[in-house]
Every structure is written in structure tokens, then in C-alpha cells.
Amino acid sequence: MHANSRRISSNQRHLHPRLATEVRKHLQTRYLRPVARHNRVAYRQLQAALDQCARPLVLDSFCGTGQSTAELARRHPHHLVVGIDKSAARLARHARSDTENYLLLQADCADIWQLLAQDGLDVERHYLLYPNPWPKAAHLQRRVHGHPSFPLLLHLAQRAGGYVEVRSNWQLYVEEFGVAMHLSGSPGRVGRIGAAPPITLFERKYLRSGHDLWAFTAQIKGSVRRDELAVIG
Q: Do 117 and 33 form a contact (C-beta atoms < 8 A)?
């Protein structure tokens, strides 16, 4: 069975020339965006789940339909796996699994990261599987590693020595993320994804279309100062 997924088309052929400048700026400045009310409402679902049964956290950010969240919950049965996506339409397509240790939130990832950091919660594993690559060079700041919320991702994993994994069918995106992590003091590994079963619907589609798939993986070390994050109460 084959699919017809288009390969990433971009006017950017190499690492973005402003990547290091943007990453260093965000690591040294405060993240000031107030948390939206609807994201606070969604976050209360996460708090309620932890109050009911305290477990280590796994995040599946930009989870789409949540298939990956259910799969990660099967792989990590002793954790609470939280899938986050801002699209109600995508989440409405979720086929509920019989696995009970996961939760789907309709919310903006950066706001949920901010609230988790505010509450001092650690994330043992953080997956960002095929996020929107924003392939136009002008959109660097919309990519996860070019966004002002990037230090929050680091902060959530650092105290627990957390694991971070990013996957994409655009090699350049993964390489940029790896450079950003290196600049933050948390280097990792970039490599091709092997023949393991796909985690997401996108991954299955890209494999059937013959795309090369890439991943960045790292155990977070080092530190990001809490006062740099400017977590909004």
C-alpha cells in the first residue's frame, strides 16, 4: 500500500542564518505571553488526573488526532501521557483506546508548558512528533526551536533528567532542533528512524510514501534559570 505525501518544499536549503541568534535571545530573555483562559481550563483536567493518581508525566505535544498519545501510553503504562493539540477537529477524530493512562487536551502547547513549569512539575519524557515544520525561511520563529517558549521545554525536562524526542520528515528541521539544543547545553543525537512500527498517522503515511524520517533524541542536562522563564501566574 502506498501513499502520496508531498515532500517538504522550502526556500531554505541550509540551517537558518538567524538560528543561533534567535535561540540565544530566547534563552536570555523573559517569556511574557499571558496564559489564555481556555488553556487554564484545559490544564485543570491535567491537574485533576494527577490528583486522582500521581504519576510521572509524558508529554505528546502537537499530538494531532491523539493516536500517538494512546500508543505512548501503551509503551509507558506507569506514566500519565498527556497529548496536547490546539485543533478540536483533529482531536475529534481520535479513536479511543482501551488504555486508561492518557489524557487529551485541546490547548496551546506553550501555555500548558508554562503552567506545568509554574507548578514545578517535571516531564520525564517529551515527544514532539511531526510538528508543523513551517518550512518558509521567514517562519523560523514559528518552529519549536525558534519560538520564545523554547526554554520552557528545556525547563520541564531538566530537573527529572528528562528525555526529549523530535521527529520529522524534514531533515533540516531536526538538524536545526539539534543545534538549538546544543546551544542550550543539552546536546543529543540526530539520525534516521529505522524500521520500527510508526507511532503516528503522519509517520505511517510518510513511510508509505517513501520519505526518509529523522529524529533528534536527548537526555536533558544543564540548567535554565527559572527567573528567565517569567512564568505568568
A: no
Q: Which amino acid is at 208?
A: R
The domain ranges of the chain are 19-90+98-229
* Domain 19-90+98-229 CATH (choose: 1.10.1760.20, 3.90.1200.10, 3.40.50.150, 1.10.340.30): 3.40.50.150
Print pLDDT tens along the chain (233 aa).
456 777 776 777 778 889 999 999 999 988 889 999 999 999 999 999 999 999 999 999 999 999 999 999 999 999 999 999 999 999 999 988 888 899 999 999 999 999 999 999 989 999 999 999 998 999 999 999 999 999 999 889 877 678 999 999 989 999 999 999 999 989 999 999 987 788 888 888 888 887 889 999 998 864 444 433 433 32
Quote the pTM value.
0.89
State how far the alpha carbon of 203 is from the alpha carbons of 197, 221, 222, in Å.
9, 28, 31
